[in-house]
Amino acid sequence: MEVPCVRVAREAGEETRERLDDRGLLDHDHEITVADDRIYLPVTDPSAVADEYAVVTHDVPTRETQVTPADLLGFEPSYERLGEIVLLHEDDGDRAARVATAVMDSSLPVATVANRGSKVTGEFRTRDWEVLAGDGTTTVHREYGCSFALDIAEVYFSPRLATERHRVTQQVAADERVVDMFAGVGPFAIPAAKRGADVVGVDLNPVAIEYLRENARRNDVAERVTAIEGDVREVTSDYTDRADRIVMNLPHSADAFLDTAVSLASDDCVVHYYDIQHEDDPFGPGERAIREAAEGYEVAVETRRTVRSYAPHEQNVCLDVRLRA
């Protein structure tokens, strides 16, 4: 059936699909198709599609009825998707097992269902997972045109922060020098490098660093990503005074690394500082800590942003701060 579609190159397919879906423009009644190395994404209202996209008519099949976990359970379960892994946060073991069975029996393209077994703990910020269906804890997650191989049992990765990561990395200019002080498998570092930046990614976790290197190769930016294993306070002396942009995504303890961030900053540097604070004053403690550490710099807070609610009365926030010598 001929329907209006956005036509993009294959490598831009996932990012475009997410943007269209976020804006309520993706037509879920028809299939996304591939032809001549182009992806055709059906849309509900072609007049509302941004001018940057080519809208054409294309013959796409009608989508068969999708069976959701909610259809099988009779209620809407809460879960997150990470590649082909579905992540549950259920405290009741019997309920978790029911949800896992429904997820596997649904139309979702899922290989594994895992339930949270612990809080994030330890210096590597990992958690235990109980695999309820399928096997294995490795996957490849895709967001905004990048793909990330990872093992949920060995590294920290939150799919909930995709929009925030995109917000930050969209600010990166070609030829910038970026330091990601707690890089993990590269969800900030890889898209920054894809925009043309030279990126130094540091992490204590040796498994995360190996995945960072693999993901740099996977996304064709290996020549622009330097992955360093270790404590950023001890392994970055070669990069003093060089960074045009610094990412400090280590809520709860980023303030302990501010002296290092200031030492890495160039004469004009943007710092993305993540924090978790009480809702009564979510930005004040971080801003005061930055101003105290940034001696010799003019400090300008460009953005104060609440990323998400972290716990009752606690907010995960970000300060985008420009340091000028």
From TrEMBL:
UniProt protein name: Methyltransferase
Pfam families: TRM5-TYW2_MTfase, Trm5_N, TYW2_N_2
Gene3D superfamilies: 3.30.70.2580, Met-10+ protein-like domains, Vaccinia Virus protein VP39
SUPFAM superfamilies: S-adenosyl-L-methionine-dependent methyltransferases
Keyword Acyltransferase among record annotations: no
Alphabetized CDD domains for the sequence: AdoMet_MTases (cd02440)
The organism's place on the tree of life at top rank: Archaea
SAM-dependent methyltransferase TRM5/TYW2-type domain sequence ranges: 79-325
One CC-aspect GO term: cytoplasm
GO MF term list: tRNA methyltransferase activity
Keyword entries, A-Z: Cytoplasm, Methyltransferase, S-adenosyl-L-methionine, Transferase, tRNA processing
GO biological process terms, semicolon-separated: tRNA N1-guanine methylation
